[in-house]
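Example (one chain per record):
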Amino acid sequence: MTPLRPTLRLRVAAGFALLGLIVSLALGGWLLWASWDLEHRLIDEALGAELEDYLARLSRNAQSLPPQTATLRGYLIRPSQGPARQGDVPPPALGALGPGRHTLEVDGVSYRVAVHLGTDVAIYMLHNRTQLTQRERRFALMLLIGVALTALLSAAGGWWLAGRVTAPVRRLAERVRGRDPDDPMGPFGADLPDDEVGELARTIDGYLHRLRAFVIRERTFVSSVSHELRTPLAVIQGAVEVLETDLDLDGRTRERVGRIARAARGMGDLTTALLVLAREEQGQSSPPTPCAVDEVLAESLELHHPLLRHKPVALECRIEAHPVLDVARPLVSIAIGNLLRNACTYTEQGKIQVTLSASELRVEDTGPGIPREELDCLFAEDLGCRRTVRGEGIGLPLVKRIAESQGWEISVESRAAEGARFRLQFALGDTTAGFPRSTDDPDSPAPGRTEGTPLTFR
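Predicted structure:
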């Protein structure tokens, strides 16, 4: 399951929300602490003023009573006489307090206490903190609501701002999406501002220009080389045909001429296949003529079985159907030929089994197999990756390229020291399974290639 990745706009909005939350929490916490500290200082100052005022009155009138209001309660205690008011007993916890300022809870009510201890008198001033506590709670609730609103407003502002900032990037992405390197449309950054997005667009324009030039050079090279090689190859094939008719050639020379003929035929198929692929990529391909896969397979078997002449390897072919593909014949020949050549090259003993069915071609061998770490690079065209596997040729990468161009599938199964199995699966829409041909048909397959009967080379 692919993990969900937040968009750039969402990440910017989340960043703004987080920043607003952190700033508002820090500011709210500082305000709450400052309010608490200020109120406690004011209460302590008020208690100190009341205590000094009462001490001044007490010095003028020894019978003066301590203040008694809704928020302030005073207690005067003389050790020899007790409380100044009859029946007004101070809380017992006051006796444990020393001089100074204290916070005390009595019967569930919080008080701020100022204590003055004289030689013959003890004075306690208590300030009720109930209203202060309620105000602190309301203030904390207001700060919490403010923090939440600030975070929401920051997220909304970040979402809007990110939308404005990323709008040019989205427009640029829409222009780039689906753009072909050969598309002659104008540059991306023509109507974009001269900022970072415009610079990105101009960089993409430059990259596409270089990529387009590279593609043109590659196609021109492939087309030109493939076209120009056909002439010398035709000369070589003509010369080989003349030599093959010479009855004075000895066996060794005739064998060498045969090798030249097979190499020339393979090179001719390769150049034709490259030319066909180049034209298809340029959209210049002509409608292909139907290609009988079993006929191409028979030719490829005849061409490659000499590679096993000095090896104890049996080459068997089983024809289960006669598919006909609407594909250029050289493409089929190159694809089959590369699979057979690899099997013949790396199999030193045992058997190579080739099976043709209505929907696929299988090539199985008893060679050394392919290590697991090399399988990923087997069909790669990257030279850096290809150097990790045996050989650096274009064989299997070319088979992969042909398969992708025709909608086929190429796969491999292998175990070390047990051989490999290649499967070339044809596109169903391009396949027609034929029936076994009559032997009276001049185009019928060679004996031994009837359906289900193996043809063996040794």
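Caption: The first strand starts at residue 72 and ends at 78.
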